[in-house]
Amino acid sequence: MTPTLLPALVGLALLDSVSIGTLAIPLALALQERTRLLHVVSYLATIAIFYIAVGIALLTVASGLRSLDLSVFDGPAVDIAQIAVAVALLALSEYLAPAKRAARAEANPDRMGALSRWRQRVFDEQARVGLVVGLAVVAATIELASMLPYLAAIGIIATNGVALPTAVALLVGYTMVMIAPAVVLIGLRYALGARVQGPLRAMNTWVATHSASAVSWVVGIVAVLLFLDGVSRLFSR
Predict the structure, then answer these.
(1) Is the pLDDT of residue 70 over 60?
(2) So what's the pLDDT on residue 114?
(3) Nearest-angstrom CA–CA distance, 174 and 11
(4) Residue 44 above 70 pLDDT?
(5) Please, what is the Cα angle at 214 between 154 and 103, to 5 degrees?
(6) 162 contact partners, CB below 8 Å, separation of at least 6
């Protein structure tokens, strides 16, 4: 384990901590007067368990790939496939742009109304815990592909040559740091009540607004990098 491993993982985890799924949604749940603390805790616990489980699966796959002959993946067909994926990601980036989202919302008011009603059900005091857990799984699944710091952390852990138990411990620590800002802010919400409602609502609005734009940009940047790498390797053979 290198000396820079832990600081790198902490930094990446803090970047992941300000996404919609890890901060905006749980904070919005806590800011609702009707939402029970059990719902907020259930949401954050589900997020943590989801990312730990996915991380363990990815680390297990990475460990298995070390013993395989990967030369079969070194060919023009793979380069072309990578370029195709990059083009698809560029299209997805455009689709996720905030302006396009707003246009879809105006064009489909009934759909947005249904989403609003579903959100109200989750925020309701009588909402079942299963509904909140479902929201957490959906949010984590949607954000997984765009959470590049998390994926980078998995790659760093996998390439550091640590034993699987140590890798899992690092992954658990990463996830705890990732949800720590939400835990602290939600703790302030329940400890101080109305005195922090205003600042927390303003922070939540800022995170939700800028996260939507950030996801589009991140997907677009990854697409460009994949495209350039694929083209470079294809024409250098």
Answers:
(1) no
(2) 47
(3) 9
(4) yes
(5) 135
(6) 1, 170
Phi-psi region of 2 (alpha: psi -120 to 50; beta: other; left: phi over 0): beta
Which is nearest to 45 in space by CA: 183, 157, 150?
A: 183
Residue found under tokens 């799924």: 21
Q: Say whether pLDDT at 112 is over 60.
A: no
d(CA 142, CA 125): 25
Find where tokens 């939540």 sit.
204
Tell me what pLDDT residue 8 has: 86
Contacts of 62 (CB under 8 A, 6+ apart): 154, 155, 158
Quote the CA–CA distance of 121 and 147 in Å, as a whole number.
Answer: 27
Quote the tokens at residue 55. Answer: 């991380």
Q: Does 81 score more than 90 pLDDT?
A: no
| Contact by Cβ (8 Å): 89, 96 | no
Q: pLDDT tens digits for 167-200?
A: 999 999 999 999 999 999 888 888 887 778 788 8
Q: Where are the alpha helices (DSSP H) in the chain?
A: 5-16, 25-31, 37-65, 76-96, 98-107, 109-123, 129-144, 148-159, 164-192, 197-235
Q: What average pLDDT does range 137-156 have in this prediction?
A: 80
CA separation for the pair 179, 102 (Å, rounded): 29
Q: Please tell me the distance from the alpha carbon of residue 122 to that of residue 158, in angstroms, as a whole number.
A: 37
Separation CA 167–CA 6 (nearest Å): 12
Average pLDDT over residues 110-136: 63
What b-and-e string marks burial along 54-90, b requiring 16 or more CB atoms within 10 Å of the CB?
A: bbbebbeeeeeeeeeeeeeeeeeeebeebbeebeebb
